[in-house]
Amino acid sequence: MQQTFDAVVVGSGATGGWVARQLTEAGLQVAVLEAGRRLNPSEDYSEHTPPYEMPLRGTRLPRERREKQPVQSRCYQCDEYANHLFIDDTEHPYTTPADRRFDWIRGRHVGGKSIMWARQSYRLSDYDFKAASRDGFGDDWPLGYDELAPYYDRVERFIGISGRAEGLPQLPDGEFLPPMALTCGEEILKKAVADRFGRTLTIGRAAVLTRALNGRPACHYCGPCGRGCRTGSYYSSPHSTLPAAAATGRLTLIPDAVASHVTTNAEGRCTGVYYVDRLTRNHREVAGKVVVLCASTLESTRIMLNSKSSPHPNGIANSSGVLGHYLMDHVMGGGAGGTLPVLSGVPDTRGNRPNGIYIPRFRNLETRESGFLRGYGFQGGASLSKWGHANSIPGFGAEFKRRVKAERPWSVYLGGFGECLPRFENHCRLDTERVDAWGIPILHISAAFGDNERRMVSDMADTAVEMLEAAGAEGVSRQENISPPGLAIHEVGTARMGNDPATSVLNRWQQAHEVGNLFVMDGSVYPSSACQNPTLTMMALAARACDYLVEEYRAARV
Ligand SMILES: Cc1cc2nc3c(=O)[nH]c(=O)nc-3n(C[C@H](O)[C@H](O)[C@H](O)COP(=O)(O)OP(=O)(O)OC[C@H]3O[C@@H](n4cnc5c(N)ncnc54)[C@H](O)[C@@H]3O)c2cc1C
Ligand code: SF4
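Output (structure tokens, whole complex):
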């Protein structure tokens, strides 16, 4: 007889790994369906591969991969080393209106995007959770910072976040491992932005271990983390949460299982998940008393929209018609770069530090001082340039080498990540005509940034220039070129939570208003995007929702 699991989790990435761990450790028998394969670190990771071992020296994608990855190759990390960690776009199509480009970047393997992510990890604050009450746009979150803080603590303690406490209300401090060091260029910039503008510059808060934690060794600063980490020194689910879940003996991880839809009974309650075997194309079903979707923003919503039955004719948990709406991604494209001549000849002691700097949001906090709502933070850094400047130095021989060494510039740059307002019209729905390589209906995504985001990007460029110039940077170039939605890879929303079933899909515990044994525990649940990188918050929310799920499960209320 087929086993009925206590919970079926779809997706094994950043959030699915956490959910699998917490539910198995609470005593539940859990099946995790993962659409992709298991990676083999000795073959799939290339963080220690030097450029001279790569056919194209790591400089560009081979032509055949470019043809199969026209969308993925827009992501900086999808390069000659790591393109196999990103999907083949020809197998995973989606459609958009001709004038609304959306770059949907995905990884389908055990671990999902937690293998390739840039690990920046920041808490949200009540400036974010209660943003609507402050400026009147959109809806507040159905929870506040005080309620989420213990779950941030719990996640940080387990996965490890290095960083420095700064005491800022808009960027609450966490339980940090020792911070990485700033370079001298970053120290100069930090002093200038504090002295001139009263702003804070801090080392990036990163899910990278600066000392050993929970059986994982500290980072050895080899540098290119986005290609995988054989020592598991940054957070990825296959090196952290999934092994912990497996150690309970209660995890059944099913790779190559492409979930198509949630199955339901006559009353509309979940009975399990229907999936297609990625390799054989056979159709199968796994039975569960509770279903938890962690397939990532948009993918979880796609599964829900495709879960149609007579109790759920518009997709499961969608009688409000809100499912698929309020899609958001951070807006990028405003910033500046320059050089720091004052550091000419000074060595860079940073080595291959896998981290940058962060300037937390400073707009629209206590006052409304800008022509847009909400705010943005800057990421960036200052470092001794690689050797590109040699191209512009004439000559050859000993004198040429001397000049190349002596004139190696210190470069400095800042790039903003801004909040995107939640708008109903930014949405996804099922494309009624096309399916993916496994016969599952694909998404039609229609999203665009608006005037608020455009004004924000312009302000990012202005403030980046003023801060670099205050630090004595020269040759400062102002960059204002708004990014397409999706490319920040911080997509959130489409199955938002809220207190009102007429305007939200999930309640404050990430449980579907209409289906008590269906939960969503990834970024789909966000009611607003804030401007901080989202993954840490997704995981803290999942930890909180799992506590609730376990309590309800034990009391036989789900
Ligand atoms: C280059 C890059 C840099 C980034 N940098 C940062 C950063 O610095 N900070 C930050 O906070 N975030 C960053 N992100 C985003 C971060 O990776 C995501 O927010 C995070 O991984 C989301 O977690 P998730 O569990 O929702 O999705 P994922 O980690 O993507 O996991 C989803 C899993 O679900 C599986 N899946 C999907 N569909 C199905 C299906 N139908 N059936 C079965 N399984 C399915 C996928 O194969 C995948 O394994 C970055 C992402 C990238 C690519
Ligand atoms: S986390 Fe550290 S050890 Fe791992 S790949 Fe990144 S730099 Fe290298």
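Residues 167-232+331-418+449-484 form one domain.
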